Each structure stands twice: as structure tokens, then as C-alpha cells.
């Protein structure tokens, strides 16, 4: 009986975007600026929420956790990506690939669930205001956030188990700039049934959460339209506009990345993946700071207090 040549590789090769040195330097500088903006913006949002008593509410508690997830998901991808831009050999060890895929899937599913929690929070605030404070108690908020991380952890473990069932033959070249389970399934030369089942289950869970968000916002919009005064409509919509923008960007780019017809990876696909994995985490704090009067007012008060202390 012939022996199988399928083995677990010691490392994977990441193709990145281009081999042109000038383009790589340009991309390095662009990604570095985006990464710094992501870290500073999200950490700044977390610190502002912690330092401002007027932002100690469920919505901003969830937002602080969203910012933490964005910092983590960017950090698990972008430093390695920056190193590859200035390295001739764009390789990642098998253990490093497993770790990157685990953390990325953990944080990605956590964000999916957390966005649904934030939609539920806005639904209660606008459609059921009399129940809001009793339902969204500090204990309940902690439980919802903890549940989000537990769901993400379950997904990360599941996807990692699926990866361990995959075997590869010869040169294991991933046509992407980080380790994701989808290209690994395509690359595998072994039975991929378990991995596909786990990936499909995660996708169905994400779709169900997106439907929950959609139904929540249909109810929110219906309630807002029933408000008679124009000022009341404006104030009600302003409380959920930032979250709706974030959800639209997140699910819009995710759908393009994961639900497009299966085909060989192309450079255009990689740019779409970059939008989802790199630019979206950077945009979130700016969306919430530029479109939210409470955040801008909290920043003004904090800045004024610091100036007063310096005098």
C-alpha cells in the first residue's frame, strides 16, 4: 500500500500582495499608519469611556469592549504583515498559523455577537424605554459581554480543531497575508468534511446574528417613524446611527469576503479582505467619535479638566 505524502507542514508561505519592492515599501507605510491610527483611536476610546462618568452606560460599556476587540484583531494580523513587507521570506510557522487563526476567529465571532448585543441595547432604549434600566442592569451587561467572549472562544477552539484535521502535501502556500481557515481548507489534500462543517456552523451563526440585527433595526426605524416631532426623530436616530454605520461596514465587507462565489484568490479579493480585516477596526472609533455628541462632549470636558489642572 502506498504511503500518503500528506503531512503537517512546519511552516506556511504567505504570498502577500506583490513582489515589487517599491510597492511593498508604500504598502508598509500605509499599513503602519493604519495600525497606529487603529491602536491610538481604539485605546483612546477605551480610556475616554473609563475616564468620563457620563459615558458609564451600557452602550459605551459595549463600545469599549468593541474597541478592545478591534485592537486585538488588528494586532494579531498587522505586525506580522508589516514584518513580511520588509522580509524576503514571507513565512509563518505552523504553530504561529494555528495561533493566528485561533485568535482571529475568537475575536471575529465575539464581535459578531457583540454587535447583536449592541443592536438589542438600542432596541430596548428606543422601543422599550420603560424596561431599559431594569433589563440592562450592570449584571446583565456583564453577562452579555462574557457570553460574547465565550461564543468567540467556542468558535476559535472549533476552527482550530478543524485546522488540526487538515493535512497538506508539498509546499503549503497560502494566497493571503494571514492564516484563515478558508484558504487552508482549499489548500488541504486531506478530508475537509469536519472543517467545512465547523466553518458552515460558524457562518450560520453569524448570519442568524445579522438577521437579529436587521430585525432589531426594522423595529427601531418603525418606532422612530412613529414619533411625531422632527426633533424627537432626530434625537432617537442619533442614538443608533453610529452603531448602524459600524454594522453596515462590518457585515457589508464580511459578506463580500465570505459569501462571494468561490474562485481562485485574486489581488482584488485581497484588497477586499484588507478592507474587512484592517480598515474596519480603524474606522470604528472615528465613526463613534465624529457622529456622537456625547463622546465629543465627554472629550471636551476631559480636555478642559486637564487644562485646568495644568494651570
State the gist of this model:
The protein starts with 10 loop residues before the first strand and ends with a helix. The radius of gyration is 22 Å and the shape is globular. It has a 3-stranded mixed sheet.
Could you walk me through the main structural features you see in this protein, from its secondary elements to its overall organization?
The structure is a single chain. The chain has helices at 21-51, 58-75, 78-85, 94-127, 129-135, 138-164, 181-187, 193-225, 230-258, 267-290, 293-310; strands at 11-14, 91-93, 173-174. The chain has a three-stranded mixed sheet with strand order 2-1-3. The longest helix has 34 residues, at 94-127. The radius of gyration is 22 Å and the shape is globular. With 311 residues, the protein is mainly α.
Amino acid at each position: 500500500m502506498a504511503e500518503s505524502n500528506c503531512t503537517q507542514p512546519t511552516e506556511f508561505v504567505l504570498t502577500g500582495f506583490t513582489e515589487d519592492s517599491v510597492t511593498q515599501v508604500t504598502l508598509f507605510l500605509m499599513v503602519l499608519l493604519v495600525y497606529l491610527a487603529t491602536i491610538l483611536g481604539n485605546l483612546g476610546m477605551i480610556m475616554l469611556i473609563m475616564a468620563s462618568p457620563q459615558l458609564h452606560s451600557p452602550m459605551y460599556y459595549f463600545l469599549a469592549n468593541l474597541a478592545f476587540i478591534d485592537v486585538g484583531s488588528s494586532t494579531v494580523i498587522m505586525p506580522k504583515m508589516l514584518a513580511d513587507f520588509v522580509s524576503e521570506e514571507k513565512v509563518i510557522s505552523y504553530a504561529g498559523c494555528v495561533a493566528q487563526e485561533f485568535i482571529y476567529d475568537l475575536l471575529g465571532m465575539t464581535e459578531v455577537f457583540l454587535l447583536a448585543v449592541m443592536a438589542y441595547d438600542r432596541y430596548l432604549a428606543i422601543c422599550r424605554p420603560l424596561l431599559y434600566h431594569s433589563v440592562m442592569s450592570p449584571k446583565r451587561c456583564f453577562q452579555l459581554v462574557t457570553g460574547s467572549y465565550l461564543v468567540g472562544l467556542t468558535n476559535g477552539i472549533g476552527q482550530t480543531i478543524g485546522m488540526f484535521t487538515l493535512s497538506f502535501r508539498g509546499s503549503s502556500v497560502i494566497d493571503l497575508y494571514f492564516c484563515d481557515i478558508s484558504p487552508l481548507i482549499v489548500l488541504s489534500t486531506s478530508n475537509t468534511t469536519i472543517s467545512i462543517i465547523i466553518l458552515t456552523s460558524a457562518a450560520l451563526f453569524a448570519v442568524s446574528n445579522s438577521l437579529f440585527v436587521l430585525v432589531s433595526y426594522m423595529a427601531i426605524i418603525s418606532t422612530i417613524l412613529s414619533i411625531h416631532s422632527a426633533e424627537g426623530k432626530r434625537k432617537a436616530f442619533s442614538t443608533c446611527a453610529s452603531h448602524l454605520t459600524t454594522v453596515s461596514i462590518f457585515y457589508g465587507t464580511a459578506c463580500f469576503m465570505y459569501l462571494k462565489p468561490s474562485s481562485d484568490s485574486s489581488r482584488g479579493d485581497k484588497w477586499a479582505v484588507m478592507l474587512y480585516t484592517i480598515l474596519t477596526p480603524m474606522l470604528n472609533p472615528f465613526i463613534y467619535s465624529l457622529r456622537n455628541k456625547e463622546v465629543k462632549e465627554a472629550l471636551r470636558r476631559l480636555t478642559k479638566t486637564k487644562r485646568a489642572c495644568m494651570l
